[in-house]
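Q: How do we represent a protein-ligand complex in a form that can be generated token by token?
A: Start from the inputs.
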Amino acid sequence: MQNDMQNDMQKTMPHDIPWWQTAVVYQVYPRSFSDSNFDGIGDLEGVRSRLDYLQWLGVDAIWLSPMFRSPMADFGYDVSDYCDVDPVFGSLADMDALIQDCHSRGMKLMLDWVPNHTSDEHPWFVESRSDRTNPKADWYVWRDEPANNWFAELTTGQSAWQFDEPRNQYYLHLFLRQQPDLNWDNPEVEMAMHDTLRFWMDRGVDGFRMDVIHLIGKEIDRNDPDEAFAKQQGHGSLNDVAITHERLRAIRRVLDEYEGDRASVGEVYLLDEAKMVEYYGAGDELHLSFNFSFLWARWDAPALRTRILTTLSHLQPRGAWPTWVLSNHDVPRHRQRYGGTEEAARVAAVMLLTLPGTPFVYQGEELGLIDAVVPPEQVVDPGGRDGCRAPIPWTADADHGWPLGSWLPFPPEADDRNVGTLQQNTDSILHLYRNLLQARRGHPALQSGTFSMSDRDDDVIVYERDGGERRYRVVLNLGSESLAFDDLRGATVLVSTVPRDAFASFDGVVPAQSAVVAMVP
Ligand code: NOJ
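Then emit the structure tokens for the protein with 1-deoxynojirimycin bound:
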């Protein structure tokens, strides 16, 4: 095997490694996960009632999308009280019970902190907008005229500036107009937001996913140069400002006030790995950052190889730890993006869960779900993301475990692609995810071994994870021909996307559209 990259970030023994480096993190989007009170919207008790399932699957940590008090203009990403639970999801007591239950099972819980903006119904904004002299007057970004040519996201083509009567001024909103941007230049805002982190860490949460964290520093007086592009994309993915790093270091110090490896993973939505890695700082900013260049790569071996190697080449010199994500609540599910076949979804699962770094699994990808088809009259999200937020089908029954219906339609194939049905079939994609998670636990080299990728130019991605005593080869065959590896003949296969006879010795052949993880003899 020809190595074109040695990744030696991971020299420490597994027991020295913090949890957020070895964990598989599972994203729960609470509205669509599990409904305990039958109002058609998932809730915290619903999440708690499914912890057995998550434990059976083998996840180490949960990232819980926002459950804070919210008018739900952006389904929880418009927060009106950071220190309370929205009644639709339950209560603070439910949250405490969830934290406790996760911990008693050895699972970590990360919340989704939304620092760039609040809801326009947050008492801070209500006060701020009331006149120009109130104590919160400067907690948001107010100007007499729009200060730049920025566009908002979620509503393509809309200015990021909204005129507001009482102050006779404009306020900035990089997302919906119901989501005014906080003014992080004001130290009182920074301190208040730090306190919201402490509030939850005092209650025991293990860390935070930080929503659009690269936006907490802005150069308001600078126009976006390419206005046509900015109009399409919104300003967010263009915002990359030095002051943000100082603010991230301050946030890191707040996390470090607490024992127990409280961790951050930032949504740094910059589609350039070189820029994204800056947000790890010198190990003193984010613990982890999402990597959207990888998420958006085509399902194509050369494209994926390039993104993986580029990512690692930027992270490695900093000793920064990678993350790998294929789906979340904002993008079409990856099985769909990759052409719709279950074969591709299976090969992708092997890739996601064997690359060096922390993988994030979005609820339902373990069922091989694609997006729901949402008829126009049922569309609720102004950003067009309802399809990937469809409720999880738990059973094969007509109601799929949502007795009084649900806020969005189910994904296609829910009669077959539901937890109950797939749990019973050991050849299902659900069991593949479970096998991969078990393999990571049983073979720590898959979590923390060194990484080397074969130099190839075909449709097959081949890499090895080396733990010192044992070496594992991962073969992802995206092509249409099967491929034989002579040196793997007789090797132990840990995981395979195609069913194999458990008693037959491995012939070293990896069929088209399939993947294996094998111990190198
Ligand atoms: C990113 C979140 O993932 C998305 O759902 C939300 O709409 C925006 N940030 C604004 O908070």
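The two ends are 14 Å apart (CA to CA). The chain is about 25% helix and 15% strand.
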